[in-house]
C-alpha cells in the first residue's frame, strides 16, 4: 500500500472504527440468509476500476438465481457499472459514487442520503477489505447485511474456519452461497455481460468494415490485442512489437485487430486495423465477434472474458490466481523471466487449441505447455 493510501486508510479507521465494528457484529453467519422473503437487494462495490465492475457479474447472476423475484440496486464508483449492467432485467438502479469523493463531497452526501431513505432486505459488501464498502453497509438500512468477516470485530465467527476461493470473482459468490440457508450445487457462473443479439450483429458489421471486408470471406481467425495497462502491469511498445512479430511468424494467417485504449493512441505501431470506442458494451460486442483476445492484466481483459471470447491474460506483477481470466477456454500466462518471443510461442499454442474447429485448418497444431 502506498504511503498516501496507508495514511488515508488509518484516518478513516480512526473516524469510523466504531461503525465498522458495529457492522462487523451485524453480519450474517453461514446459513442465516432465508431462501424466501428477500425482495430488495443492494450490492455495494464502490470502486472505479473497470475490472472490478466486471468481476461482480457472477454475484449479480447468483442473486438473480437465488432470488429470482428480487429487485437489485448497485452502488459503484464511476460510470462503468452503469454502462455494463443497467440492461439486466432485475437491476433497478445503479448509484455511482464520484471518483474523487473529496472533491465532490456534496454529491456524495446526497447519494448517501438517498440510500439511507431506502430499506433493503439484503445489503452485500462485495469486496474484502474495502472501507468504503463497509461504510456503505453501515449507512444503509437492511434486514440482513452480508460482508467479508473481520476477525477484530467478531473473532468467534464461523466464517474464519472456512477455506475461501482465490479468485476475486468467486469469493463474493462463495460469500452469498455460504450465507444462504438452501442448497446450491450448480457451478459458479463465469463473467457475462449478456450481450444482445442486436449488439453482436451491429458489432460484427463494424468489425468487417474495420478489416476491410476481408473477415467474412477469408475465414481467417481474428484476434484482438489490447496493449495497454496501468503502471507496472504495462508492457512497452518494443515488447509488443517483438511479441507480434513472433506470433505472426508462427501463425501467419492471423488477422490482428489493435484495440485502442482510452487515450486514443495505437500501441502496435499503426500496422494493423484498429478499433476505438469509449462505450464499454460496444467494445465488448466487438470483442465478442473475434475468435480470440490477448491482453495484459487489466479491466479490458475481464471485459473480453465477459464477452464470451476466449481470452489469454498476460501477468507480470499481479497474482494470476486472483485475477486470471477464468472459465471456458480462457487462460493466464505469468510472463516473469520470459522474453516476448517465448510468450508469443505459448499464446500461439493456446490459439491452436482454442480457435473454433473451422479455423483450425489455418493454424499448425503445436504442443501446449499451459
What does this structure look like?
With 370 residues, this protein is of the alpha/beta class. It has helices spanning 3-26, 50-54, 57-66, 80-85, 105-117, 131-139, 168-179, 197-210, 215-218, 237-250, 280-288, 299-307, 320-323, 340-354, 357-360; strands at residues 40-45, 71-77, 91-97, 119-125, 141-146, 222-226, 255-259, 274-275, 292-296, 311-315, 331-334. Strand 4 (119-125), helix 6 and strand 5 (141-146) form a beta-alpha-beta unit.
Q: What's the topology here?
A:
Blueprint: H1 3-26, E1 40-45, H2 50-54, H3 57-66, E2 71-77, H4 80-85, E3 91-97, H5 105-117, E4 119-125, H6 131-139, E5 141-146, H7 168-179, H8 197-210, H9 215-218, E6 222-226, H10 237-250, E7 255-259, E8 274-275, H11 280-288, E9 292-296, H12 299-307, E10 311-315, H13 320-323, E11 331-334, H14 340-354, H15 357-360
Parallel strand pairs: 1-2, 1-4, 2-3, 4-5, 6-7, 6-9, 7-8, 9-10, 10-11
Helix pairs in contact: 1-6, 3-7, 8-11, 10-14, 11-12
Amino acid at each position: 500500500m502506498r504511503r498516501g493510501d496507508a495514511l488515508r486508510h488509518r484516518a478513516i479507521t480512526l473516524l469510523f472504527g466504531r461503525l465498522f465494528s458495529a457492522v462487523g457484529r451485524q453480519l450474517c453467519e453461514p446459513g442465516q440468509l432465508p431462501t424466501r422473503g428477500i425482495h430488495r437487494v443492494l450490492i455495494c462495490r464502490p470502486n472505479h476500476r473497470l475490472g472490478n465492475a466486471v468481476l461482480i457479474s457472477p454475484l449479480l447472476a447468483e442473486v438473480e438465481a437465488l432470488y429470482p423475484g428480487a429487485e437489485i440496486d448497485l452502488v459503484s464508483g464511476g460510470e462503468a457499472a452503469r454502462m455494463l449492467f443497467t440492461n439486466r432485467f432485475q437491476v433497478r438502479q445503479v448509484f455511482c459514487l464520484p471518483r474523487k469523493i473529496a472533491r465532490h463531497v456534496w454529491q456524495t452526501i446526497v447519494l448517501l442520503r438517498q440510500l439511507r431513505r431506502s430499506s433493503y432486505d439484503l445489503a452485500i459488501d462485495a469486496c474484502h477489505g474495502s472501507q468504503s464498502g463497509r461504510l456503505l453497509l453501515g449507512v444503509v438500512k437492511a434486514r440482513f447485511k452480508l460482508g467479508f468477516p473481520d476477525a477484530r470485530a467478531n473473532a468467534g465467527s464461523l466464517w474464519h474456519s472456512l477455506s475461501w476461493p482465490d479468485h476475486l470473482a468467486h469469493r463474493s459468490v462463495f460469500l452469498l452461497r455460504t450465507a444462504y440457508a438452501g442448497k446450491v450445487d450448480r457451478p459458479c457462473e463465469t463473467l457475462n455481460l449478456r450481450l444482445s443479439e442486436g449488439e453482436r450483429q451491429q458489432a460484427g458489421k463494424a468489425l468487417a468494415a474495420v478489416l476491410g471486408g476481408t473477415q467474412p470471406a477469408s475465414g481467417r481467425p481474428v484476434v484482438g490485442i489490447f496493449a495497454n495497462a496501468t503502471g507496472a502491469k504495462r508492457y512497452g511498445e518494443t515488447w509488443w512489437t517483438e511479441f507480434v512479430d513472433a506470433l505472426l511468424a508462427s501463425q501467419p494467417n492471423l488477422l490482428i485487430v489493435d484495440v485502442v485504449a482510452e487515450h486514443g493512441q495505437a500501441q502496435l505501431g499503426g500496422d494493423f486495423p484498429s478499433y476505438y470506442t469509449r462505450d464499454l458494451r460496444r467494445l465488448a460486442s466487438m470483442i465478442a465477434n473475434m475468435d480470440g483476445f490477448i491482453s495484459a492484466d487489466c479491466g479490458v481483459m475481464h471485459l473480453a472474458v465477459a464477452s464470451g471470447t476466449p481470452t489469454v491474460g498476460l501477468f507480470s506483477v499481479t497474482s494470476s490466481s486472483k485475477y486470471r481470466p477464468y472459465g471456458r477456454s480462457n487462460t493466464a500466462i505469468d510472463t516473469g523471466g520470459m522474453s516476448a518471443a517465448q510468450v508469443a510461442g505459448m499464446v500461439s499454442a493456446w490459439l491452436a487449441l482454442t480457435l473454433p474447429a473451422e479455423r483450425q485448418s489455418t493454424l499448425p497444431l503445436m504442443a501446449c505447455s499451459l
